[in-house]
């Protein structure tokens, strides 16, 4: 609030109304709906519902398919986050360093931001095509028979590769802007104190990038969990079958395709709790240490 | 034109903090009053209450004959110059100056004429079509002045308008603002933390500290007869020397040295105030000062030393010779101020 | 001297490899779109560009592959435009209004409004996708542009972004405006909106790309083919490739290129605004 804010009564309410209405109808109502239905069992033919308490949750954690999906999501998130951050950091450090062509590199490394995830999925389908995909051919050269959509691990591998590719630009942009915001004087001081470029990087640059890195860590986890839906849906060609699935994809498959509303809602609630926990953790961390200002 | 009257005006924030304790004073028509004090002393809050940007918690504020406590800022017939100028960055100088008039639904040709007049007065004519970002600090300052002038207000309010300028420009603008105010004859209230601005510009100075008005007076009064140790140390650079002393039978002593006489009926511990320029080395001087450091300032020199274990500063002419070690020093014209040992108020 | 040179070469090599990784897949897509389908089906992506782009463009833009014949490329492009622009405008207008109310007014329930609004930042649409679908269904908004756009606006990213920006606008500006006789509406239109131009542009780019690239939500909300967006249509394309004897790779890939072209061009041409919007919106 500004010190000298306006004190008109009706105007701010009118200004807030559209936002509040949309939020209440399309955020709180559905969120509440999800929480509520997670405690009910829906009749498959639409004849009412029965209160079942925590049963939906219990059967969730007993379901081997769900646990399998949970484990896969964990590995998927860790791999996507690690590789997209590490590779993007490498590119950003180099792009920050070179003098010639810096702008061109910047453009070339970030434009993929605008590519829709399912299109990235299409690229994956082509690259890993069974009969002539360039990546499949490369694996064949190494003597490995890569089978997308058939071999569980091969499909998972393709998902990770495509998801990392799609996420590189965002990380690159943030790392680069983080690097560029390190004061010149700090770099120069480091240059005088330390003659090894690599130890300068690990001692000075890397810690100073930590706030950016931490922010990106959370962003990437969220991305890998939620925004990879398009990539996965195209890679598995809408056929979950025996393929690896993330938790979000499973919510969609079970609820929308399988009509298991109670179970799907319980899954939604579990995801909500996960995201909330992550956010709380993020606030805590940001408060506690990773800020130097 | 208008006079301004404050009657027990007070500001309490919702959290209970009393930023301005009940204040009453009167500003005459055409007078230039400077509110001065350290940051957080309540001077800006006071100004903002007069402007209407801050609600008045208690008391009455009159501009002219009208009580304006509940009047909107735009209707108080005031103009304000802000510390960071608050120019609208996307508007040209012309539009910036004319925006207030446009909102009063004044016709275009009148606005243009007034803008031209103000621009001429402030040497801004050739910059009228520029945006604020294309102007130097001094020029922006002038635009802010122009915006105030075109409104023909009955009261000018200045909120540290020079603090963003470099020292040289500040001296120049100080004189310009003062000259402009003289010419227009508009009542003005000027907030600053810079005691030099206060001394040089004000008809009267209001010194504030901790939400309280410490003293109201002409620059000479405030300087020569500070109402409290706070005013004594705040006004003047270097500040007045404040020494612990005592009064016995009309004799003022610091340590064992008698520094003067007083007719006041006080005995016991007091705070003794002496301006640095009221001290001078003199063979017959009654004070013995241990000189530790001499600062050369060109036009004069500052001598830092001790008397009876207490630090003391003396300002001497550039040609005055001075040696090391204890030297005899005299006090000119008996210029000694006495303050209450506990409250710091002038005795 | 020689050592430094070697290092520079290494830096450039890394960057060139990176650039190629980003760009080659799209070149591959273009190559396949230019090659006759028979060729592609046999050999996959090759090194030689063909002459089929005009033919495939014709097919992609004007032929439909659905049952109703309504999902031509032109139609999907139109729908994508509506989604992209509608979402970006809607979000910015709603967000600016709400942020203005929160930052510049004394509201008795300001803190509560703030929390109601900003809690939405915590939960992405994906975790409440099914109930959201049901509510849109209940409101009779399936297969409508409102149903497509409005629920996506129910997250306060733009509001948060503008709140941050408004807070950084110097206090004195609103004070000067008040003394200049500008009321809340005048201040908003005369001063705050023009001041926010760069921010609006930056936000617009981010939001347009975000809206354009939506996939899951349109997949659920639009079942009628004349409501498909390009990105949602991708799914249709891949399925038709799988299900037909002679997959139309050329047409499909060209459609994919058309689907990414508008957001990619916007991001490239308005790069500095885009980067600004991205890096400042998330702090």
TrEMBL record, chain A:
The keyword Disulfide bond does not apply. It is found in: Cell inner membrane; Cell membrane. Residues 70-282 form the ABC transmembrane type-1 domain. The keyword Transport applies. InterPro entries: MetI-like, MetI-like_sf, UgpAE/MalFG_permease. Part of the ABC transporter complex UgpBAEC involved in sn-glycerol-3-phosphate (G3P) import. Probably responsible for the translocation of the substrate across the membrane. The complex is composed of two ATP-binding proteins (UgpC), two transmembrane proteins (UgpA and UgpE) and a solute-binding protein (UgpB). This is sn-glycerol-3-phosphate transport system permease protein UgpA. It comes from Marivivens donghaensis.
Automatic annotation (TrEMBL), chain B:
It comes from the Bacteria. It holds the Pfam family CysA_C_terminal. Keywords: ATP-binding, Cell inner membrane, Cell membrane, Membrane, Nucleotide-binding, Sugar transport, Translocase, Transport. Residues 4-235 form the ABC transporter domain. SMART domains: AAA. SUPFAM superfamilies: MOP-like, P-loop containing nucleoside triphosphate hydrolases. Transmembrane segments: none annotated. GO terms for molecular function: ATP binding. PANTHER family: MALTODEXTRIN IMPORT ATP-BINDING PROTEIN MSMX, SN-GLYCEROL-3-PHOSPHATE IMPORT ATP-BINDING PROTEIN UGPC. Belongs to the ABC transporter superfamily. This is Sn-glycerol-3-phosphate ABC transporter ATP-binding protein UgpC. It comes from Marivivens donghaensis.
Automatic annotation (TrEMBL), chain C:
Residues 77-270 form the ABC transmembrane type-1 domain. InterPro entries: MetI-like, MetI-like_sf. PROSITE patterns: ABC_TM1. It is a multi-pass membrane protein. The keyword Transmembrane helix applies. PANTHER family: ABC TRANSPORTER PERMEASE PROTEIN MG189-RELATED-RELATED, SN-GLYCEROL-3-PHOSPHATE TRANSPORT SYSTEM PERMEASE PROTEIN UGPE. Part of the ABC transporter complex UgpBAEC involved in sn-glycerol-3-phosphate (G3P) import. Probably responsible for the translocation of the substrate across the membrane. Belongs to the binding-protein-dependent transport system permease family. This is sn-glycerol-3-phosphate transport system permease protein UgpE. It comes from Marivivens donghaensis.
